Amino acid sequence: MAESDFDTGEDVAKSSSQRRTAAAVEHFMAEVVAKNPNEPEFHQAVREVLGSVYPFVEANPLYRDARILERLVEPERPLPAGRPDSMAWKLHSEIVLLAGWGRAILLQLAHPLVARGVADHSGFRTERRGRLRRLDRTLRAMLTLTFGSLEEAAGVVRRINAIHDRVHGTLASREGIFPAGTRYSAHDPALLSWVHATLLDSFLLTYELFVTPLTGEERDRYCEESSGVEPLFGIPSGSLPRTAAQLESYLHARLASGEVVVTDTARALAAELLYPPGPWA
Questions:
Q1: In the predicted model, what is the mean pLDDT of residues 153-165?
Q2: Which of 15, 70, 101, 208 places its Cα 20 to 30 Å from the Cα of 266?
Q3: Closest CA to 147 of 82, 70, 101, 85
Q4: 243-273 b/e (C-beta count within 10 Å ≥ 16 → b)
Q5: Is residue 65 pLDDT above 60, yes or no?
Q6: Between helices 112-121 and 189-210, what is the axis angle to 10°?
Q7: In angstroms, rounded to a whole number, what is the distance separating the alpha carbons of residues 7 and 17?
Q8: By the 8 A CB rule, do 192 and 235 touch?
């Protein structure tokens, strides 16, 4: 037999990984079909989302460490030890939550100062595979803050704040209600609060759409737990919503204020994200 006829350890591991991923997808799809039996277009949309997300997630060691794929195949498996009552662990353990990232990012870009900061300082438009690298960095940060040790989480916070140190500037022309000369900074508590709220709202919506409804108490607990990032990023205490009602009120207030408006900058960034020039460019 030729040497190539034998499976290497890497081949076996890859094959096992692919089987586990396929099993997780089919298990989740069975639940989706059972809950929505007469909506084939919805089934296809979910399958397409999972088909694009699962291979990336399976390659991420933080997901493997959290044993999330195994939990999807074996739903009776308990959440990882240490924080069994954490709503963050409950929600972030569901890989399909990644489907909410796109909505959150588009909402973030709808704030002119956020969009300008991304346009001026992010390399995802110019770096080779910049979008994939950005997704990987963002995903790793969320996973580490949720599932990592205190030391690992502290490292992520330091790296995020270091990146934010470099993201600041001045509008060259009017964008939305903000006149030319308006200064922006990634450390601005108002912008950090907007980004935070878009993630909370999108994750809650995605979880309840694809997984299961949450009680009012569970939504409130998720908001309360998530507000713990305030001191980590220099956000004044009490700025972030502690309940789902506060989150809804905050979002309505921002929309009513006129601050949130889709600018040409936001449209250009959204087009780059939604219609990249090449696969995972």
A1: 88
A2: 208
A3: 82
A4: bbebbeebbeebeeeebbeebebbeebbebb
A5: no
A6: 100
A7: 14
A8: yes
